[in-house]
Amino acid sequence: MTSYDTILVETRGRVGWITLNRPDALNALNTQVMTDVVAAASAFDADEAIGAIVLTGSERAFAAGADIKEMESKSGLDVLMGDHFGGWAQFAAVRTPVIAAVSGYALGGGCELAMMCDIIIAADTAKFGQPEINLGVIPGMGGSQRLLRAVGYYKAADLILTGRMMDAAEAERSGLVSRVVPAAELLAEAGKTAETIAAKSLPSVYAAKAALDAAMETTLAEGLRFERHVFASLFDTSDQKEGMSAFREKRSPDFTNR
Ligand code: CAA
């Protein structure tokens, strides 16, 4: 398996694990982290043997944001022409479901990275926020758009305009977090959830993720049209026949991803 400078990568069964690994910088997301995460996630995404990905950090920090020291001296033109953060769009576009397992700080780009994932499982120690306003800027990796869709205008405005942090309980109440678990159980819970997804038929998992994406990105009418067509297309898979006959025969399905 390829080795990377800023992340650890591992495969466990049908689950690909990516662990952010810049402990001295609380996993701040510099360009190398972006390059490494995108490469690892794309490799898992291209591998049919992988049915789900877990993205995690350390106990102290999922990620404390984009790397401020790397950005500090850039001009607007540098950021624009270098398409700073542009690579993250490739991570957000992987078809394989990604579970963010968040412990400690998920701030700025860290919160935005979690929001590029499909399920966010938080340790009870997690803290979320978009503190960019304290630095004289605003969220730049999707925070003003994805946070608003996740928690609504008023909570998003509260967080983005004040720069304050919210704890895991508030994040779950607000709809940002899928589940909160005791810190000691975080990785086991994320792993179990990933295994559950990875045991499904991959074409239906890809389709479900694409339909959820459509709901985020389009109107209700277009989303419903998209769902109807994708739903129909799944009836041409062997796994649909297998899933439904297994139900009728009262046994577990044996999916082949075809
Ligand atoms: N960029 C670069 N380095 C960072 C960093 C970041 N975002 N966050 C933490 N670090 C570094 C610190 O500089 C420090 O390094 P040194 O020991 O070399 O000084 C090390 O990580 C440990 O951090 P602290 O000593 O600050 O740890 P703490 O426990 O006292 O505080 C913290 C933790 C509250 C998270 C604090 O580190 C902090 O406020 N970090 C910055 C959070 C932030 O503003 N994030 C948004 C970044 S901008 C962004 O993300 C833009 C975007 O939309 C994409």
Automatic annotation (TrEMBL):
It catalyses: a 4-saturated-(3S)-3-hydroxyacyl-CoA = a (3E)-enoyl-CoA + H2O; a (3S)-3-hydroxyacyl-CoA = a (2E)-enoyl-CoA + H2O. CDD domains: crotonase-like. The keyword Chloroplast does not apply. Keywords: Lyase. InterPro entries: ClpP/crotonase-like_dom_sf (IPR029045), Enoyl-CoA_hyd/isom_CS (IPR018376), Enoyl-CoA_hydra/iso (IPR001753), Enoyl-CoA_hydra_C (IPR014748). SUPFAM superfamilies: ClpP/crotonase. It comes from the Bacteria. Transmembrane segments: none annotated. It holds the Pfam family ECH_1. Coiled coil: none annotated. Belongs to the enoyl-CoA hydratase/isomerase family. This is Enoyl-CoA hydratase. It comes from Microbacterium pumilum.
